[in-house]
Amino acid sequence: MRQPLKAVLSVVVTALFLLFAYASSWDDVMATSTNTTVAIKDCEQETGVSGQLIANLSFNHKNGVSIAGATGEIYITHQIASKECEPVVLQSIVKSFVTDLDGNYEFVGDSYLHNNSQDLIRVEVHIDSRPGHWDDWKSVQVKYYNSFVFFFNAIAPDAL
């Protein structure tokens, strides 16, 4: 009696695994950025304003020494509010980077037009760990309507 029960449970577990795998697209599986759509509410039409996206990163040790050659990724989402106040992603960018000799990286993006209080740009920066030196560092900022410039001041987390 135990053998058939084990066989049935194995089939059920395998079926659940396949169902979950099927429900996830390959892009979902490969994505490393989280919450790329930002929930919005209380949308208000505003005067149209345009600006160019600029994201600046400075990466330093706790003692203030710059960290050159650190690698990472920047995730950018440009989102606007529909007439029904639903989030609409117009553009998603994922770009790898390396900090320069001064521990800095600058991303200069497109110019965007916003005409709703809930139009936004979301920028996430992830710096890869360097074993023995520092652990992963990640930060997310969201700017609404007329804000287009981002500053990330990263202090290297201690390696475990």
Envelope shape? flat
- Biggest pleated sheet: 4 strands, antiparallel
Number of domains: 2
The CATH architecture of the largest domain can be named as Sandwich
Element string (H = helix, E = strand): HHEEEEEEE
- β-strand percent reads over 45%
Radius of gyration, in angstroms, nearest whole number: 21 Å
Q: What helical percentage do the residues reach?
A: 10-25%
The CATH class name of the largest domain reads Mainly Beta
Helical segment tally? Answer: 2
CATH superfamily of the largest domain: Carboxypeptidase-like, regulatory domain
Number of strands: 7
Flag low-confidence runs.
18-33
CATH fold descriptor of the largest domain: Immunoglobulin-like
Structural class: alpha+beta
Description:
17% of the residues lie in helices and 47% in strands. A hairpin with a 5-residue loop joins strand 2 (71-81) and strand 3. The longest helix is centred in the N-terminal third of the chain and has 22 residues, at 2-23. It folds into 2 domains: 1-30; 34-155, Immunoglobulin-like (Sandwich), CATH 2.60.40.1120. It contains 2 helices and 7 strands; from the N terminus they run ααβββββββ. The protein has helices at residues 2-23, 26-30, and strands spanning 45-60, 71-81, 87-98, 104-116, 120-127, 137-144, 149-155. The strands form 2 sheets. A 4-stranded antiparallel beta sheet has the order 3-2-5-6, with no helix packed on it. The chain has a 3-stranded mixed beta sheet with strand order 4-1-7, with no helix packed on it.
